[in-house]
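>> Question from a student workshop board

For tomorrow's exercise we were told to take the sequence and the ligand below, predict the bound structure, and bring the output to class. My setup keeps failing. Could a helper post the expected result so I can at least see what it should look like? The ligand is magnesium ion.
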Amino acid sequence: MSDILHLLGIEKAYNRGQPGQIEVLRGLDLSVARGEVVALVAPSGAGKSTLLHIAGLLDTPDSGHVTLNGADLTGKSDHLRTTARRNDLGFVYQFHHLLPEFSAAENIVLPQLANGVAARMARARAADLLDRVGLSARADHRPAEMSGGEQQRVAFCRALANQPALLLADEPTGNLDPQTSDRVFGVLMDLVRETGMSALIATHNLDLAARMDRVVRLESGQITAL
Ligand SMILES: Nc1ncnc2c1ncn2[C@@H]1O[C@H](COP(=O)(O)OP(=O)(O)OP(=O)(O)O)[C@@H](O)[C@H]1O
Ligand SMILES: [Mg+2]
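>> Workshop helper replied:
Here is what the output should look like for this input. Compare the format with yours to find the bug.
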């Protein structure tokens, strides 16, 4: 199977069965091919984060199938889902979520150690990634000592630390000013292209979306091509 991600018939509602029930995803289908970079565009509240959390195995759909790297993870144990998440996925949030007590390099080393990589190799990979995003000089700085754009570049490195097959990014430049956003996004795209990774990237920004291979729109809980 050539798709890295396949979502089939995904349904998700919040406050199910209650008066305020919100049906966010309504039988959504979406595939991402290996090596493909897909932009997910939709207005605020349409369900982008909900979709990415389901694709990222951080949340489960009410019904439907999530197939990642050829494995259908529907109804699988937490253990299997966690393993799949560690092996196959990198996640970038709108706000970086870096560990404040640790340096930039340590933030990139730690997920590798959790994945069984030897410390020396993990440090070498962190140094290489920081170099690629132009932050070698900031390796020993904590997040609070860096600008928003720098923190987000570190977050990209962290997401790519374990060489995931699929990168999921939830408005990765959403809290940056337009100029910084443009530059930082370029860094992310270079990293993705260099590694031949697949990616699903939510964004409000149609200019950024146009730089990806394909643009899909999330509308009324389903995917429509743009
Ligand atoms: N935990 C929750 N409980 C109840 N409703 C929720 C919850 N999470 C999200 N929602 C609702 O589901 C809908 C989709 O939310 P989601 O965060 O997926 O949208 P989004 O497209 O990511 O929006 P944004 O662009 O603002 O980040 C919204 O109406 C939101 O209010
Ligand atoms: Mg969101």
